[in-house]
Input
Amino acid sequence: MAIILGIDLGTQSVKATLTDTETGLLTSAGREYSVEIPHPGYAQEDPEVWWQSVVGILSALRLAQPEAFAAISGIGLTGQMHGLVSLDTSLQPAYPAIVWLDQRSAAQVAQIYASQNHAYLAEHLQNRIFPGYALPSLLWLYEELPETYSRIAHVVCPKDYIRLRLTGELGSEPTDASGTCLYDLRSGTWFRPLLESLGLDAGLLPELGQPMQTAGTVTASCADETGLRAGIPVIYGASDESALLLGNGLVSEGNVVANIGTGATVSVYSDADRYDPELRTHTFCNAVDGSCAVFGAILGGGINMRWVRDSILDGMDYEALSELAASAPSGSDGLIFLPYTSGERTPHMDPQATGMLFGLRLIHDRRYLVRAVMEGICFAMRDCLQILAELGLPAEGVIASGGGARSAVWMQIMADILNQEVRISTTPEQACLGISILAAAALGFYADVREGCRALVRFAPEGYTPDPVNAALYEELHGIYGELYRASSDLMHRVSSRGDLD
Output
């Protein structure tokens, strides 16, 4: 038996769990924070807020399970992908962390594509460059804030900053690095030639380890601040997408994980290095056996529900929101929501896409609004699933994950729109579970991650089965949903171009 601490640094909250390698989850804690939007198109966060949130939830874990906390044998880290944390020579943030929702670097993305061979970029990155990724964000700093850029000595991914605070060691690993557009998936190294061609300093990039390698141990100063025992090994860890696959037991091809967090993703495990030639999906390194995580990404998932909660319904809790949605009819009487409030990735790859409520009539009230938002996000997930099917990636069943999976009405909507049975993990924090399994296997408490999954991954005995009548209704509405973007994208771009993204 061993106790593993798993930490998941999300976009709107950080979560942590204590897991017994024999019996499973012992306790969990979380703390919310907000994405800062100082100007239209900006999305940034303060790494110090991340760290103080981690310190706070570690205190909560220690109070809840003092004996288990004192017995922690290893630490695994996962977290939000794509973002840029820039550090000065003192390892202090030189600028707020630019996170994946950010759109300020649209001009830099266009500049990169104008100056580089598109086929060359696709072959080596296997992903479309998008605002909010570390590469264009770094180029934005270089061009727009040269004095700030001159102070940058290191750049890391968000979860790597937390590992730095735990261990004092800089570093990253391929699952996160491959989501920055700074990494060459073909060679398995940083894409230094691309950086140098853009005038960026490749020396800012940290050394790369492997997800299951020990990156360092908890320092004495960190122990004083957090109550952790000095000397606990900390593995390099993995991206949240890789941890989610593992935490839902995906260590071979077959199922799909539909995750609704701040954004939303539809992900599969792929034995082969496969990517969409049209670059509508993402292919990143996975933490298991040289495999890949292939997925469609939606920028506006749970953040749209939070917008409804905070900006329209005065902070109503999520359980009450689900009750409202349940009281509206399937299809929301023709009210259709496009969740592109921060632009969109899969399938449109359009940073200038905007959200939309279509079909609004006097009959519609807040019940319909909440349900339409849930339905719109699931329509976007269906778009992702269709592209994965085109790539020949099998999806024989859907495993729902993330905060959205706590809503029964939302899960039934998902089953009806995807027209597939939806299963739910009995562990509420699947990314924390996945990274805990990875850490336990890395430290020898399991023979491999598959043994860890067999020991700890469990699903509710009953899932959600699609209703044939609702599935037929949603089939029709999904067609209208797709036509709405095609008919209005030019207008979206005209509206977006009026915003001040400087």
Observations:
- The longest helix spans residues 468-496.
- The chain has a mean pLDDT of 94.
